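Fold this sequence, please.
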Amino acid sequence: MGRSSTQRDLTAHTTSIRCSTELLEGMTALVWDFGDYHSPIRRTWRELGSTAARNGKWIKDVQETDPFLVPYSIAVTVLQQITDGYVYLDKNLAFMVTLNPVKPDTLRTVFTYLEGIVRKVPLDEIPFMDQPTLARLVADATPQRHNLAENILQQEDGKPASPDNWAYEAVKWHIAMKLAAKPFLDREVEPVLEAYEAATGETKHRTADWRPSGNIAAVQYRPISTGDLIAWDQPIGPVFANLAHPVNLGEAIKARPENPTRSQVQYAMSRLSVKMATYTAEPNPVLNLDAHIRRINNTVIHASTVLVDQGTDRPLMSVSLDGRGLRQTNKHALEILAKMDADRSSLNAIEERVADERDRLNTKDENGKRIDILTPPPGAIRPTMPKTDSFAVGTGSGIYHLSLLRDHVQRAFGDTASLLDLKSKGNVFGKRAHEPATAALAKEKKQKKNDGEYVDLIGKPSPEGIRRSIEAAGYKKLRILCLWYRDATLTRMIHGLAHPYGLDPDSIDPDPAGEKPFPLADGIEAVFCNAEALLEHGPGTQRATDAQRITSTFAEPGVLLAAWCETEIPVRGEEHEGLKPAEVKTALAENDAKHQVVRELAKAAVPSQFLVGREYDPFTKTFSIVKKPPKAFEDHRVYMGVLDLYRSCGVVDDRFERALYPDDDPYPLPRMAFCGIHIRKQATDRKYKGAPKRIITASAIIPSPDPGGPWRMMGWSNIHPQWEHYALAQSNFHAANYPLHTENGDSDFQRWAQAGDDVCTALKELHDELDGLPYALMIDGHASRRVWPGLHNNKQGLGKDPDDPRLWLPASGLPPSWNPASIIRMNCAQAEMPRLVNVTEKQKNGKTVPLKTSSDLYYPEDRPEGHPWFLFTEPRNYGKKRHGQWKTRWRADPGKASKNVGERKENELNSPWYSMTTREITPMHTRDGYDRETLAVAAARLSHQALSWSDRTRYPAPLHAALQMDLGHPQYRRSAPKDPESIEILKEARGTDS
């Protein structure tokens, strides 16, 4: 429906560079190879880590680990200072890589001091005559000077390129130095205006196009020790916004207000990242370059990383800070540097600022109010900060910065850089249910919006589609329990159900007793019940009883109950006075009614969804009740909430039939199911030995064998390992606790192997649920990379390693007919994706025209066998303001606040700036008779037609449904992993911006 039948010729231009002999010529690195996992040096390193963990300090009769007594942190901080800064030490001591030599005696001294400190030997008493084992082994290791081209590029044996881990670090340093060798040219673009006659007859002007002006600012990026680059001398913020570009820091200090607010002196810097990645069928790795905004913290003590300028002859140092609560430089590293008479001036400067901030932290004014520590002017020490919602500089660099970055790459590398271009036919997606199929329908919808009438903006399933899906699962009726305790929320719920079903909200008159169902459509009804006792925050000693009473009242054979509940985010109150922040957080979590209600309803097999009825403003410290907006279509939370409730009910309707099986489809897909498997780590609890069990959830979307029939959605988890209707599977999962640690002390490696066995069992049992249909399996390549070696890029075309006990593939060992028709590996890690700059289209007359964005499915230009596809997506909010399309943040307008509407100017500086997101889709191990391109298109369509979202989800629908099962578990927040890799995987899967 609405899909163009004419193929287009689109070319996507990116900032990615193909690695080649010419590009890598002359690039080398020194590598210390410390052996495999069982080598003496790595075994000694692990023993030292265990010793550090044991040698804690006692506080209030409880042993607490010394936050500074971490061998890795100590060693890295010291090595950064005694070298030129280009040094990378593997956390597990598998290798060390530098660009320049480090003397063996220096390494011997560093690791001798390190071992002595960890073993609690006073520095003056550390024996150097009797060398510790670790220091001797490290010093005796002979570094090898490696040529990066030889390690990174594909060899003559034809096997996939498989760079060593050290090469991923060293190549970033070299690329960063090359990029920093030339100034980055920020060319201003100006609008081309055209005159037109307004409806009033008045002549006005509008922007018809954009063109480069003669105004060019040269910006100098500097390398960081991590391999990134940063525009150190060109900060971005309110103080600098009205100054000449490029800015003069001396003038900027003069422009600083006398008594500034916190936001007036906040600033950020432009950062460029370099990340090497491999793709299937691409003979050599690709370097993906991206542009970011790095915000500067107002304090060091609340930062985890500090950037330090030690002179232009060295890279900017990225120094990790340690400690709990208030952070500082690793004190043990400072002690070692002092003993070695090494230059530690930069670290001392950090410590001086830490001491000053600690003194000022609790300073109060004459009214007893704590004095805010403001961000100082840009200096040699700049602490960085994570994303925060309230900041003077918004997130994102914008798409124009990426186009300038592509130009910069071409200037820096010349003909040695082969930039990655991708191609697309551009006719993959049809119109979704809420997208007008014709211009006339679009005009009609726009008029309804202007009139305030209800229009579908989310793509709701049809009542008939909901009913058929519910009946296919074995139910006769869907009954939605609307549980509320504020009149405003009741009103929103009534409108949120009435409009999508074509009903007049005034015709819904809830039963005062909250017992009489109201019919919404054939087979679908709602009950409106005041349930304040169940939903209010607190210990909830009667919550289980209240939930059982409500569910038993409305439960009937053949009726699927689903609860739509009011809630609010719990906040600190008078009862929390005197508690520490961690204690307050625990108390709020324990008394949060939402998670308790989810658990109690799940026990009764009732899926649930929540609607916030009251919000808290932390700045004004006031509450406000959320009311129904003036226009019928504007309550987005309500409509999205209902849509997600349908997902929890396992509703999969004719939207997916239209998406996957449109008329006259150039990508004809056989009738087949799609199964998504979600796997993640749990947070490690140090009270237990070994690694925690993995969490595994799965969902399968199963079409009818014949076109036009009802679809089904099944679910599975390793907590309740059997395939069931999705609503029941999710309820059984939410009703149970996450699996705990066990006393057997299984390692991380063993846990990943066990996860592979669990998935294989799930796939074996899935075969009986498919009614003979084939299926494709969808997994996140990053989340599962430690589970199945056969899905790694560097293992393609190779056989199983007999020494590796893990399953080679998810269905290894199952009968061939039970194997998936294809394994579709998804990758949502934006750092490993090509970043779209712009698109050009070659028209039938041979003319090439530029396009700014594209949301199509692309593939490598030369289409090697086994290649991936890349799905570009325009962010949801990009089309509203298009900030960053024609300027960089250095030229952002800080806006103007005014009581007079006509005098106000929008603040571009603190607005989010968007660029295109990318996901990689790679069908792998595809059986004969199935087309890889058709399967890639199907995966893209299953992201485009989301289960419970108006736009695309990062994951295709089955994988998204599996992820949501886990995210909705009442214990998820407590179980969520804390390691950076897992956090990043989940962040990318959920599609949150960085």
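Confidence is low (pLDDT under 50) at residues 58-63. The two ends are 35 Å apart (CA to CA).
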